[in-house]
C-alpha cells in the first residue's frame, strides 16, 4: 500500500505497535521494502519505556 502511494525505500517508518508475533518472518517483506523502519524500542531507552511495560 505504501509503495502504491508513492513512498520509496528511503522513507522512514516509525512503528509504535506492541510486540509483533513472529516478527522476524512477518516483518521481513516490509523491512526489505523500507529498510529505514524504526520501532519505539530502537528509539527510546529502557528507562523511558519502563512505565509502559506490563
TrEMBL record:
<keyword id="KW-0294">Fucose metabolism</keyword>
<comment type="similarity">
    <text>Belongs to the glycosyltransferase GT106 family.</text>
</comment>
<dbReference type="GO" id="GO:0006004">
    <property type="term" value="P:fucose metabolic process"/>
</dbReference>
<keyword id="KW-0119">Carbohydrate metabolism</keyword>
<keyword id="KW-0808">Transferase</keyword>
<dbReference type="Pfam" id="PF10250">
    <property type="entry name" value="O-FucT"/>
</dbReference>
<protein>
    <recommendedName>
        <fullName>O-fucosyltransferase family protein</fullName>
    </recommendedName>
</protein>
<dbReference type="GO" id="GO:0016757">
    <property type="term" value="F:glycosyltransferase activity"/>
</dbReference>
<keyword id="KW-0328">Glycosyltransferase</keyword>
<dbReference type="InterPro" id="IPR024709">
    <property type="entry name" value="FucosylTrfase_pln"/>
</dbReference>
<dbReference type="InterPro" id="IPR019378">
    <property type="entry name" value="GDP-Fuc_O-FucTrfase"/>
</dbReference>
Amino acid at each position: 500500500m505504501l509503495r502504491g502511494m508513492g513512498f520509496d525505500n528511503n522513507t522512514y517508518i516509525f512503528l509504535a505497535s506492541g510486540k509483533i508475533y513472529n516478527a522476524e518472518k512477518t516483518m521481513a517483506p516490509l523491512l526489505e521494502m523500507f529498510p529505514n523502519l524504526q520501532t519505539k524500542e530502537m528509539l527510546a531507552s529502557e528507562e523511558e519505556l519502563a512505565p509502559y511495560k506490563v
